[in-house]
Each structure stands twice: as C-alpha cells, then as structure tokens.
Batch of 2 targets.
Target 1
Amino acid sequence: MANPKVFITRPIPDSVLAQIQDECDAEMWHTSAILPPIAEKIPPLDGLVTYGHEPVTDEMFDTSPNLKVVSVVGVGYDHIDVDAARERGIALGHTPGVLSDTTADMTWALLLAAARNVVPAYNHVQVDKQWHYYDPNILWGYDVHHATIGIVGMGRIGYSVAKRALGFNMKVLYNKRNRRRDWEAELGIEYAELEHLLKVSDFVTLHVPLTEETTHMISKAELELMKPTAILVNIARGPVVDHDALYEALTEGQIAGAALDVTEPEPINTDHPLLGLNNLLIAPHLGSTTIQTRMKMATMAMENLFAGLKGERLPYGVLHPGGVS
Ligand code: DGY
C-alpha cells in the first residue's frame, strides 16, 4: 500500500521531518515565507500539518476527499474550519500545555520591555548613538512590582502568567468565562468583571482564544476604561484588539503603552500607522518560539498526525477520527 500523502506547511525540525518521512510520502513547504494556498499545492492529501496560521477551509477539504487528519503545530486552531472538519469526520490535533510556560515568559518579556522602555533604550544607545552623558531624566518607566495585573483569559497560559506575577508581588486580577475558584485559592488571585479589571489594572494581558465573542473585545470603549498609565499586552490573537482604537488610545494618551505579539492582519502592513509609535512594541508572533518548545510542539504534532492517519484517537486531539470531540 502506498504511504499516506502528507503536506507540511512550514519547515519543521529535521529530526521530526525524518520520522514523518519514514512513514509518509511527505512534502514540506521549503521556506517559512509566503506559502501558496494549500488547496493549490498538492491535493489530494491524507494528512496535513499546519505550522503557521494559514486558513484551512471547507473548500480545501473538497480538494482532499481522503484527508484523515489536520495536525496543528500550535495550541490555537482558529484558522481551521472546525465545524467542516467535524462534519467530514476529519481528526484535528494541536499542541496544548507544552507552550504555556514559554508563552507566559514572552508575555513577561513584552510587559517588562514596555514598562521599562527596553526598546527605546536600545534605540537611544545602539541605533541613534545618543548616549553622550548620563541623563537621569530620560526613559522613566513604570514600576511592575506591587502593581496590579489584569489577566484576560485565564487558561493554561493565563495561569502561568499569574504565577510569575506573584514573584513581582503584584495584585493579580483575572477574567474568564468560568471562574476558577481553585486557582483563586491556590494563587491568591481575584476574579474581576472585565470592566472593573480594565479600570483598575496597571497592566492588562490578553490570553483569550479568537472567537466571534473575543473579536475586537478590546476596542474604543474598553481602552477608554483603562488608566492613562496602563500598558496593554496582547499575546492572544491580533483581532482581539481593534487596531484603529488602539492607535487612537496610544496617540491620545488614553493608555501609556502597548506590546503586541500578534496583529491584525499578520504580518501587519509595513505602512500601518501603529508601526510609527514609540509607545508600542510589536513582536512577530514569538509567544512559543524557543528551541526547546518548538521541538516539543513538532513532536506532539507528529504524534497527532500518525494517530490520525491510523484512525486512532489523537493524543492531543480537538477532534478524533470520525470528527468526534
Ligand atoms: C499557537 O500555539 O497557537 C501559537 O500562536 C503558534 O502558532
């Protein structure tokens, strides 16, 4: 019997690719740069590994009637038409858990960089070569320790962000659809309605999945609630924040600063007005990008792929073979 035909949308580590190629007729898009629409690439497929956020649509499924499994290298699967996959009995895997601490670390990297002007400092010294004498009156930042952090979306990543906040002696508020009283007791954190959280937090970090409900959940009205000294960190998905409203908030002093690991669209257009702001820091979607975590994610995605191709339950499944949740 012929090996299953698999397409991998971005380069994955060689050692994982080699294991997939042992069992599959696998083609990998050779570069991390622009990918042609998957549907035009090499249908029909038995398995698809998506490593990036390229949309996987119902139309694409039409071109691969034998597709058994979509394996996402990542925790978020908002780019996959889950209902269509379920209806067609296609399994869907992702890589939860393994990246929570890593993404929480990056949340803190962004938060601290924004609070303490790390990028303007780099620009001042190394790019603009302006450090001619010690000036005690430049680049004043905001204290992080003993401040209040508001965590919006308290899943595994939010939990890891909260744990780190305790080391900074911060007051931790969180908002989530379903209250986690166990985590409140364990960490000494407090549940807050979104409106209250936005009003009182010095730092607001976003960790919600992208859904209809969370699209533009931080828009003009929400930004207006925030303190003029507050900093917003979005490491969830770009469309969670309305960029026009954010531009207004950052230029009119409604909030002090922001750091985005994700944008709308992604990548953000190079002429987007947000790029010109010095109270905004944008990273190119680096949340889970460490050597160790990316290896683990690729391995988990491979395990999901193999299980799906064999018609077995996925170890990290959103949908199992037959489209079963
Ligand atoms: C995730 O895990 O969802 C990240 O956004 C990387 O794709």
Target 2
Amino acid sequence: MRKRILVANWKMNYDFHETTSFIRNLLKVFFDRKINHDKEIILSPSFPFLHISNQILQGSSLNIAAQNIHQKNKGPYTGEISASMLKSIGIQKVILGHSERRELFFENNQILLEKIKIALKYDFNIIFCVGESLVERKNNKQFEIIKKQLEKTVFYCSSDDIKFFYIAYEPIWAIGTGKTATFEQVQVMHEFIRSLFLEKYGKNISDNIPILYGGSINDINAKNFFSQKDVDGGLIGNASLQFEKFLKIIQS
Ligand code: PGA
C-alpha cells in the first residue's frame, strides 16, 4: 500500500524566526499530544533556513525539501543555488516544476529536464509538479497538457530513476485561489497520470508512484482529497502556513 505524503510548500513567506519556531512547535506538539500519524511529512522552507531546519529535524521522522535548484552545478550564475550545495548541507529532496517557477521564472520543459538530470545526479528525491491552466481546462485540454509535461521531462528518465519521484498534480487555477478542483476531477486526473506511468514503465512503477494533489487544500477538504483512490497526499501552500490548520491536515 502506498504511503500518504504531505509536503508543506512555504514559498517565500517565513523568515528565520517563523521557520524555526514552526518546526520546533510541530515537534513539540507531536510529542506532547502524542500525535500518531502514518504520513511522510516534508517541509519546504526558503533556502537560507534549510540547514537549520534540517538540523532541528535530525532524529525526527520529518524531512526537508528545497523549493528549487539551478540546472547547472557550478559557475557564473549569480544568485543561484546548486544541487551539490544543497547536498553538502544534507538536503535530499527538491520541488521542481512548480507552476510559479514555470510562469514567473520562465522554466520550460527543457530547463526542467536539465534540473531533473542534475537533481538525480546528486540522488535527490524530486517532487515534480504538473498542471493545466484554466483556459486549458475550459478547452478540455488538461489531459493532453499533463501528458506533454510528463513526456518532455520525467518520461526521459529510466525505471531506476523514477523511484526518486513524487508527482504533484496542481491545476494552476486552484493554486492559492481558494478554488479547488472537485474530488472527482482530481481522482480522474490522478488515474490518468497513473495510466501514463503504466504505459511507459509497467505495473509495478505505476502502482507505486506517489501522486499528490495540490491547490487550495485546507483542513476541511483534505480528508476528502486523501480518500480518493489515486491521491497519495498533498502539496500544501497557504494552509501549511497556519499551524493548527496544518496539524489538522496531518491528522486527516
Ligand atoms: P495552495 O498552494 O495550497 O496555497 O493553493 C499549493 C502550491 O502552490 O503548491
């Protein structure tokens, strides 16, 4: 059976104090309230706080993911951060292909493929996001779009490399908007994504690849999303910044 996975994408929100106190509180509450959960929890703070966050979480079952890496490993790329730098501070997971990176920072499939290759070279687990825009959905192009996004990136990888991936389906129109896709729309898309993995890599990989949903998940709707057959968890933005809400999502 596939494990449930929650990724808290804190984006460019929390400063040093907010990041560290959130993480310390979370560990304390898990301990004090004896919260038992069977989920894999991954927190994604901003770059400057990855190291300290990782240190605070040492010995716990929680993990850290970076929100991005550069596609090159070294050189004259002012302001950028490489996979090997992150590896040197013990980071092993990264979110790639988020729609904010695609739209605001012009990361196309070719750049994302380069990022995937460098991330795999340094043994990162990759939380890879795909998703269609509202216009694409209105024109019933969502399946075509998602297929293309995977074919031009993830599907260049070998079966061995696919084991390093989590896929996150994030319809762009549902991110940070308060509008969620319906549970049915999400299940149908996740089933479709799983069928693409079946076609490309066979049953074992398709049965085991984690597929997360992201887009306005909150403490009220989380349970329903997570009970869909092909939904293995969530990539959570806004609601992961609110301590009690996030705690409720963990317990969903
Ligand atoms: P949201 O963000 O939960 O605020 O919609 C999700 C995401 O961007 O990953």
